[in-house]
Fold this protein.
Amino acid sequence: MEKKYRSLHIKLTPQRLAILGFLDGNKTHPSAEDIYKGVIKKFPTMSFATVYNTLEALKNKGTVQELKIDTD
């Protein structure tokens, strides 16, 4: 799986690979919290910040888009 993501030019830690695996083929719009809940079982010491920072890195690379919902 790591070869698939090398073109992103980000550090590919096991935690980031788990996050990318969660997102790969996901047709829903998971929140950072959804992703965290999906990978925490495999990496119980991973922080929510890791998910958030990985999503920011992917957003900066144009790999994911952030959807904001206006609740006003």
